[in-house]
Amino acid sequence: MNFLPVILWSDALIWLLVASALLLGWLSSRNPPLRAAWRRVGRHRPGMAAATVLLAFVLIGLLDSLHYRPALENKGEGKTAYAIEVLSLLDLVATPLRTRNEKTYSEPLATRAYAKEAIEVREADGSVRQTRDYPRLKHGGAHLGADEAGRAADVGRRLLQAGGAALLAWGTLAALAAGLLAHAEGTTQAAAWRRIWRGESDFAWNAVLGALAALFLVAFPLLALCGDYHVLGTDKVGQDVFYQVLKSVRTALVIGLVTTLVMLPLSIFLGILAGYFRGWVDDAIQYLYTTLNSIPGVLLIAAAVLMMQVVIDTHPQWFATAAERADLRLLALCFILGMTSWTGLCRLLRGEALKLRELEYIQAAQAFGVSDLRIISRHILPNLMHIVIIALVMDFSSLVLAEAVLSYVGIGVDPTMISFGTMINNARMELAREPMVWWSLAAAFAFMLALVLAANLLADAVRDAFDPRMAGAA
Amino acid sequence: MSGADAMPGELLLSVRDLRMGFVSGRRVLSAVDGIGFELRAGETLALLGESGCGKSATALALLRLLPAAGRILGGAVEFAGRDLLQLPESAMRAVRGGGMAMIFQEPATSLNPVLTVGRQIGEVLERHAGLAGAPARARALELLAAVGIADPQRRLDEYPFQLSGGMKQRVMIAVALAGDPRLLVADEPTTALDVTIQAQILDLLRRLQAERGMGLLLITHDLGVVAQMATRVGVMYAGELVEEAPRAAFFGAPRHPYTQKLFAALPDLARRGSHLETIPGQVPSLAAMPAGCRFAARCPHAWARCRDESPRWNELAPGHRMRCHLAEEPERAAPPVARAEAPAAVSAPVAAPLLKVDALRVHFPIRRGILQRTVGHVKAVDGVSLELARGRTLALVGESGCGKTTVGKAILQLIAPTAGRAQLDGVELTGLSRGALRPLRRRMQMVFQDPFASLNPRMSVGEIIGEGMGALGVTPDVAGGQEGEGGPGGALGALLRQVGLDPAAAERYPHEFSGGQRQRIAIARALAVQPELIVCDEPTSALDVSVQAQILNLLKALQDDLGLAYLFITHNFAVVEYLAHEVAVMYLGRIVERGSVADVLRAPKHPYTQALLSAVPSPRLDAQPAFIRLPGETPSPANPPAGCHFHPRCPRASAVCRERYPERSELSATHTVHCHLYPPGK
């Protein structure tokens, strides 16, 4: 075997989340009210377009969550040795991006570096002459050879090709969707096609296909160019920015999802307990969260992160690789963020449980002598789920943003871990530089905006679909 | 009340072929379809109909106050010579409030809670009369005095939360009157109020109308209110006006089958023991309006023509018209099917009481301050004693806030009583642990008021009904289960059939059912554990008249078959007359009068009972007793008046009433009353 699979803690949690999402999907498909609510999400056009974009991000994140250690080439016999570098499937796919490092900054699609350097040029007569010029990049546009002037033509040709390929791929997919719809509804392909574009289909196919078209038109050219150019430029140490952006997606997803995993049990359990039992239980839980809420969040997080840092630094023997260490710190950050952000949802759920317990169907259950635990699990929890789902999706985007802020302040993820926050933190100095280096920040900004905007739009759709009042109006 | 029968004034409002609908997705669902009527000054037109018939939508369309999804599809609304539907929005603002004003159903939500009463009246005065400052205040004072608010000077600077429900509705009327409108649109103005307050408000509306010669468009579902208020009546069904008649003709000889059915569905003493007429089915939904006559599916006379052809207006008499093919082919109106069997003389075997409640008290502590110290008690129930035998119905009657629901819940131990005892078949219920109570729970159950809140929307009907059986470990050997089916599925099916539902309903979810069907499900849930006593907490107050009749029939049939005892909590005397054997009248946490239905309803002794009965609007033209006007409103149970609780409002109070609470006086073997007018031992 020429690789050793590595399962980082965050990988395990991510795949656990995927499994539970699948389970949730299966459960909702068996529960008619939930199924109806998800159908409403499916009809929501902006929501489904956002979901398509989000799915692309999730795929990148999942690809980046299968880790392994490659085997080192063995000179002699005996045990195989593995590299101490932990790679993911995404790293494997993006090997050219990962390995082709320049010396330092270069602009997007540049063939030469961003700053002048002293270069030694050997003249025809053998003498060495020193000139000051922009040095040629080692990898960016290397295939052009001496023909640097042909760059524009080359880029243009690739763009055209990629655009064509994108349209072709999209057309195939669209035809496939129409075929699927035609098959499901027993109509002709043309009729299904018309229904899609008039927005008459039950599922917002036109939005999904529209989002896919936009996605393909961005992704295909990027992919076509990234092999031989640095599409989004390189950073201070010459690393490809496009690669960094791709790697940041997983960090953002982990922060957004794993934190909710920490937060949900706490807020659901305590919120229902406080609302249903009232009395001293309610008092105790309320005091707990009001106290926690009155400590500035950043302070609490900073203290916890620094403590965690000390623990990690004093126990180097725990970690076989640097990736494991960074991963633990990421999880610790998720945990701490979760511990500080459960109060909002808890308060919401407490209020709702207070309201629900006075409802007549709960009293009817009490009149049957149904036990409290059963009332909570059968009557209260299912009627709170819409709030939980809404909070989950809405919190995601705020957590992704929180990570960026915390990393910027220096109490976020491990410095070796690539995230939107660390990218922005690094870009801080670059903006003050003359001439300004803008692409690092712009790339991080654009990708993070796309991710958070998609999450927010999906949250809107989910809220509309699950809110009982809105559902009644629809 | 018939002052408005005088000479008709000038034509105020003329509605022609008004159509409006709601946008749903890409379709427009028509909610009001071709309505036309006229209204003259000084006249009251009542729009009558069940919920979902488009009454409120019509009123909103007149004022062009439609919700976001509402669209006016056509027609003309001519008000004082102008077509309102053609006016620009800016001109419409002068009409709203100035020409035509509206009173809404729920006084609690139609006033802005953060503005004083004076500000809210002042707003209208400023817009329509151009008054501000001192003159506006003087005018607001006049208005408050006109709507009968005591101490208007003080009330002007108060906020809505400081006012009681009846006063809020009076303020709402004052706001409506501020623009000096010529037409008042009242959308169920008294539905949210108690009967005594309702009588006050109706009285006020009548007086104001006579004084100002206003036109009044009254929207209601209550035939009693119509009988008292209307000069003409229009009956709406499924977005259409189906019959229009002057009041006398309407109550004397209703002609449309729907109107006839509405009258027949009303419960009262005369129909005791017999089956109430019901209208099968329900109002068709907006999305599935039938072609032809919209009532055809529920009409006993319908024939093929009704299903194909929508009936035209037929003039029956001057001012009396209806949309029904029967007007053209009257021979089709077959004589009504023979009425249900004669009332079975229910002999009353006076057995040992099943339920015995003795001096039950429920006090809720009022906590204040940081330390949450108890500073007082709300005496929701303050010494209630009851007895109820198997197979009998005891009606507990009273206005909202008198503690009748609390009595029901305290008997079921859903609220822990503060003191007193409740015994079920000789077994003490109070003070038992949850475990010890569990075997008793299956013998007593509850049916709740609001069928939309009493069923968990996330559970299927089968799960809802099965929950009690599971929790109490009831073997599904269902009473009346002559099906002989084994297993819980069979039992479930038998239960659903027993309450008149299809056994296939078990797989479905509550939102798929109408209000009446949901109440049947709630009754099936209670029946599932084979109880002997069912506490019914206003089970029909959220339902339309025709559906109410179905539920009352069901309850009666179940009592006859299973020998159930009902503790029936209600404020509706018609239901009491129809269903109950005994009545207990509650006021401020205490029972003031108790006796058989004949005792209490025919010969009420307590002044409160007398006033309450006189305030109930009768859906007939005759037989409306003189209304005994009760001043003020029910005091707070946190601070009940000293002496007899009723003395501040009692027209016959004397000195002794202020000093001590009256003892129980036995007027006959079955009739007792707490009042100093009837000294005990006499």
Q: Uncertain segments of chain A of ≥5 residues (pLDDT<50)? A: none
Please state the CA-atom Rg of chain B, rounded to the nearest Å: 27 Å
- Highest-level CATH class of the domain at 10-99 and 179-331 in chain B: Alpha Beta
Strand content of chain A: under 5%
DSSP summary, beta strand count of chain B: 24
Strand order in the largest sheet of chain A: 1-2-3
> How much helix, percentage-wise, in residues of chain B?
25-40%
Would you tell me which CATH topology of the domain at 10-99 and 179-331 in chain B applies? Rossmann fold
Unreliable sequence segments of chain B: 1-6, 338-347, 477-487
General shape of chain A: globular
Determine the number of helices of chain A (DSSP H or I, runs of at least 4 residues).
Answer: 17
CATH superfamily of the domain at 241-473 in chain A: MetI-like
Q: How many whole angstroms does the radius of gyration of chain A measure? A: 27 Å
**What is the first-to-last residue Cα distance of chain B?**
40 Å
Number of strands of chain A: 5
The order of strands across the largest sheet of chain B is: 6-7-8-3-9-10-12-11
CATH superfamily of the domain at 10-99 and 179-331 in chain B: P-loop containing nucleotide triphosphate hydrolases
Strand fraction of chain B equals 15-25%
**Helix fraction bin of chain A:** 55-70%
Mean pLDDT of chain A: 86
* Oligomeric status: heterodimer
Protein described:
The complex is a heterodimer of chains A (474) and B (682). Chain A contains 17 helices and five strands. Chain A is mainly α. Among the domains of chain A are: 145-225, no CATH class; 241-473, MetI-like fold (Orthogonal Bundle), CATH 1.10.3720.10. The longest helix of chain A is centred in the last third of the chain and has 38 residues, at 372-409. The termini of chain A are far apart. In chain B, strands 6-7-8-3-9-10-12-11 form an eight-stranded mixed beta sheet, sandwiched between helices. In chain B, strands 18-19-20-15-21-22-24-23 form an eight-stranded mixed beta sheet, with helices on both faces. In chain B, strands 2-1-4-5 form a four-stranded antiparallel beta sheet. Among the domains of chain B are: 10-99 and 179-331, Rossmann fold (3-Layer(aba) Sandwich), CATH 3.40.50.300; 355-443 and 531-674, Rossmann fold, CATH 3.40.50. Chain B is globular, with a radius of gyration of 27 Å. The longest helix of chain B has 18 residues, at 195-212. In chain B, α4 (117-129) runs parallel beside α7 (165-178), α5 packs across α7 (165-178) and α15 runs parallel beside α17. The relative contact order of chain B is 0.09. Chains A and B meet through α13 and α14 of A and α14, α15 and α17 of B.
